[in-house]
């Protein structure tokens, strides 16, 4: 168990499980894009650890760029997406892979897909570490998916709670347990 600010979190997905799955996704991308040079578009801030590890698992020439959009406040999606940092490269005619930490409602991803389509890429695929299928409100096709998870709040491996917990090497789920001290009678 760990505590971040006022909340407690229990282990959920280990570092070894994360890295194993990321390497599998990298191998799929290597196979699918053999002979091509895809551009990876990482969605900041949450995808930075996933982006770093998946780049190491890809043995193709790749381009890398970053965008920043926001829709969360505390532990809940607001349903409203704001663009905070835009693309810094030309995607016209290129194969693009969006690197995302988590897709829950899908509203942020739908917003980003709309923005990217205006850049006239040859193709756009989504690589998401996590998906909450029961929270999904948009019709999205996630080509490279790490894990489907229940509709719960997680931190670690890039994901945060109020700016903290991103540096944890594993994923942790929010729990209702309020104390580390368990007294025995």
From TrEMBL:
Domain of life: Bacteria
Key words, A-Z: Cytoplasm, Glycosyltransferase, Magnesium, Metal-binding, Nucleotide-binding, Purine salvage, Transferase
SUPFAM superfamilies found in the cross-reference section: PRTase-like
Compartment(s) of residence: Cytoplasm
Keyword Nucleotide-binding applies: yes
Pfam families to which the protein is assigned, alphabetical: Pribosyltran (PF00156)
Annotated catalysed reactions: IMP + diphosphate = hypoxanthine + 5-phospho-alpha-D-ribose 1-diphosphate; GMP + diphosphate = guanine + 5-phospho-alpha-D-ribose 1-diphosphate
Phosphoribosyltransferase domain ranges (all copies): 17-161
A GO biological-process term: hypoxanthine metabolic process
Enzyme class name: transferase
Any one Gene Ontology molecular-function term assigned to this protein's record: magnesium ion binding
Cofactor(s) the record lists: Mg(2+)
A GO cellular component annotation in the UniProt record: cytosol
Known EC number: 2.4.2.8
Keyword Magnesium recorded: yes
Pathway in which this enzyme or protein is active: Purine metabolism; IMP biosynthesis via salvage pathway; IMP from hypoxanthine: step 1/1
Similarity field: Belongs to the purine/pyrimidine phosphoribosyltransferase family.
PANTHER family listed in its UniProt record: HYPOXANTHINE PHOSPHORIBOSYLTRANSFERASE (PTHR43340:SF1), HYPOXANTHINE-GUANINE PHOSPHORIBOSYLTRANSFERASE (PTHR43340)
NCBIfam families, per database record: HGPRTase
Protein name: Hypoxanthine phosphoribosyltransferase
Organism for this UniProt entry: Cyclobacterium xiamenense
């Amino acid at each position: 168990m760990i505590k971040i600010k006022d909340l407690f979190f229990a282990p959920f997905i280990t570092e070894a499980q994360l890295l194993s799955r990321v390497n599998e996704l990298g191998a799929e991308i290597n196979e699918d894009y053999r002979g091509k040079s895809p551009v990876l578009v990482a969605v900041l801030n949450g995808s930075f650890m996933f982006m770093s590890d998946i780049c190491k698992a890809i043995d193709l020439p790749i381009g890398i760029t970053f965008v920043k959009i926001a829709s969360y406040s505390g532990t809940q999606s607001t349903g409203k997406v704001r663009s905070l940092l835009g693309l810094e490269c030309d995607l016209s005619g290129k194969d693009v892979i969006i690197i995302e930490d988590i897709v829950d409602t899908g509203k942020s991803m739908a917003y980003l897909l709309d923005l990217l389509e205006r850049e006239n890429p040859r193709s756009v695929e989504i690589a998401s570490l996590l998906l909450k299928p029961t929270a999904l409100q948009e019709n999205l096709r996630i080509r490279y998916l790490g894990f489907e998870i229940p509709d719960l709040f997680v931190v670690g491996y890039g994901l945060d709670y109020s700016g903290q917990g991103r540096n944890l090497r594993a994923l942790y789920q929010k729990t209702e347990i309020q104390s580390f001290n368990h007294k025995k009678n």
